[in-house]
Amino acid sequence: MNVLLPIILTLLAGIGVAAQAPTNAMLAKVSGSTLLASLVSFSVGTAAIAIVWAASDRVSPTTLRAAPSWAWLGGIYGAIYVATAAYAAPRLGVATMLMVAIGGQLVAAVVIDHFGLFGLRAEPVSASRIAGLVLVFAGVLLVRR
């Protein structure tokens, strides 16, 4: 069950990501503002995480003082993604938007792995990883047709 749990959780998170874009796009449509929709999304998400943290974890925020400065940028990446997805989903369709986003994530992941960036173990680029990237981008073209 050790290997299965993160796979199941990631699958469920992926379902949530697919639902997040059209949900936020509706907020943007109703409000007329992608940025307001993104703010609401992050506010609701922040409240949910705060409740779960307070109920179950409660590690002191002071432990974060030891984090390197670049570690604080994760929220910015998330904000850019959420705002972009709310904007792009109604224009491209959720499947195309997600395929393009996943393609971008995989290219970045291969580079991050190859150089061992962000304190991760280096995982060299291989022919099979490059082939996988090509197949993902071929999939983008197929989904878009």
UniProtKB/TrEMBL annotation:
<protein>
    <submittedName>
        <fullName>DMT family transporter</fullName>
    </submittedName>
</protein>
<dbReference type="Pfam" id="PF04657">
    <property type="entry name" value="DMT_YdcZ"/>
</dbReference>
<feature type="transmembrane region" description="Helical">
    <location>
        <begin position="67"/>
        <end position="88"/>
    </location>
</feature>
<keyword id="KW-0472">Membrane</keyword>
<dbReference type="InterPro" id="IPR037185">
    <property type="entry name" value="EmrE-like"/>
</dbReference>
<dbReference type="InterPro" id="IPR006750">
    <property type="entry name" value="YdcZ"/>
</dbReference>
<feature type="transmembrane region" description="Helical">
    <location>
        <begin position="94"/>
        <end position="112"/>
    </location>
</feature>
<feature type="transmembrane region" description="Helical">
    <location>
        <begin position="124"/>
        <end position="143"/>
    </location>
</feature>
<keyword id="KW-0812">Transmembrane</keyword>
<feature type="transmembrane region" description="Helical">
    <location>
        <begin position="34"/>
        <end position="55"/>
    </location>
</feature>
<keyword id="KW-1133">Transmembrane helix</keyword>
